[in-house]
Amino acid sequence: MLTKTLRQNLEPVPNNIAPALNLNGTFRGDHDLNPASPPIRDEVYTPAAVLVPIVLREEGLTVLLTRRAAHLAKHPGQISFPGGRAEEEDLSAVETALRESEEEISLDPNLVEIVGSLNTYITVTRYSVTPIVGLVQPSFSLQPEVGEVSEIFEVPLSFLLDERNRKKHSGFHDGIERFWYAIPYNDYYIWGATAGMIKDLSERVLLE
Fold first, then answer.
1. Cα 191 to Cα 197: distance, rounded to the nearest angstrom
2. What is the three-class DSSP state of 6?
3. Cα separation of 12 and 8, whole Å?
4. Phi, psi values for residue 3, rounded to 5°
5. Contact 7, 1 (CB under 8 A)
6. 195 in helix, strand or coil?
7. For residue 44, what pLDDT band results from cuts at 50, 70 and 90?
8. pTM (2 d.p.)
9. DSSP single-letter state for residue 11
């Protein structure tokens, strides 16, 4: 059963705030495809967390994703997991992920069973993101926070985990070619850090 495989292969549930940079552990990031620009060990990274919400649909597991509002200064219109930077009152990355999910899409934390985490993900925008994986009961009533989220949608987990649906794309930034993963789904273009975290998830699951 897929949920059993997830429980067995995920990282432990973190009991503290996402580290600024977990230098002594394993971390993923934008540098996976761009080895010429690795994380700087003396750099200050902002701790953050996202929820990877796997919905327990009877017809098949799905993943909740959001489209960021078009007016946002950073990453407008991009597809992401619900989440954000850690606040001082957050005692752990789990608290950050659940709090942000409730604020952004009105997801009731009581409907989420936290089962583990993925590797810390380091972004070029200097965020250290802990992806928290949760199994979500589908009896929710979601509402996007219009200041941050323009749309909430679900994608079959099997589609996201299938490596045939994941492509490596490239483009030039400041004259330097950079690479990233992308997962096109209908009219959605899932890419960057979100696609990188999905790749991490896929490597932990053996599809039937």
1. 10
2. helix
3. 10
4. -65, -35
5. no
6. helix
7. confident
8. 0.90
9. B
Amino acid at 40: I
Q: Which residue has the tokens 């929820």?
A: 51
For residue 66, CA distances in Å to 7, 70, 133 come to: 24, 12, 16
CA distance 160 to 198: 7
| Domains observed in the chain | 2-158 (3.90.79.10)
What is the chain's mean pLDDT, rounded?
A: 87
The DSSP secondary structure of 22-34, one letter per residue, reads -TTS-EEEGGGS-
Quick one: which of 145, 142, 179 has its CA closest to 68?
145
Q: Please report, for the chain, how many H helices and E strands are present, in that order.
A: 4, 12
Please give the helix or strand (H or E) that residue 7 lies within, else none.
Answer: helix 2-9
Own/partner contacts of 201-206, CB < 8 Å, gap of 24 or more, are 201/52, 201/118, 201/131, 201/133, 201/160, 201/161, 202/160, 202/161, 202/162, 202/163, 202/166, 204/5, 204/6, 204/9, 204/10, 204/118, 205/2, 205/5, 205/6, 205/9, 205/161, 206/5
**In terms of DSSP bridges, do strands 46-55 and 127-136 run parallel, antiparallel, or are they unpaired?**
parallel
Beta bridge partners of 185: 188
Average pLDDT over residues 20-41: 69
d(CA 80, CA 44): 23
